[in-house]
Amino acid sequence: MASSSKNEFPAFDDGDVEIRLTRQPQHRFVLHSFILGLHSSFFKASLNQRWAGGETEDNDNIKWRYELAFDGDGMGLLCKQTSNDGPEVLFFRQNLTAPISVPKKKLAARLEIVEAHVQYLKAIYYVPFSICSTSSGDGLQQICHLVKTGDLYNNVKPLRVHTECFVNGNLDAVRQSLQGHGPEWLQIAMKLEIAWLFKE
What we know:
- By secondary structure, this protein is α+β, with helices and mostly antiparallel strands.
- It has helices at 33-39, 41-46, 104-124, 136-152, 160-169, 171-192; strands spanning 7-8, 11-12, 17-20, 28-31, 64-70, 76-80.
């Protein structure tokens, strides 16, 4: 069976960094160390050539592997995989419906963090994404997760245009949300340097 070349997000043939957010295929990314390092000082330091793992047994291009791991407080962070065992904290078994002893509430919170990582990686590659929400409150929560994710990797700038689009497309709902969530929106606006959106 002939293999087709793929050179687009989320898996590039010439990518040298593999990122797994869960064990599901849709949460596997093969990206470029140059682009990740360009957009994040976290990746720039972490992807230093001295720490490259070298080529894998199947002679692919991947030199670095990361998996999303969670600490006891539920904070998710990409951890470099230094052996075939991966990080100590495995998020999912092969079947997404069978998490490793994670209560439903905690699982839902982790899925939100996984989705924030997906959207953050899209933003780095300028791949448009939409805030999947039925209300401004949901959108606010997703944007908060995105900004926290950007903070973890020391760059929130890629999120600015997507947040502007969400606010501009949902002005009435955002105005209503400001009444109950003003400080949260203000914090996001200041962090992303889009405070002008809220001046009226």
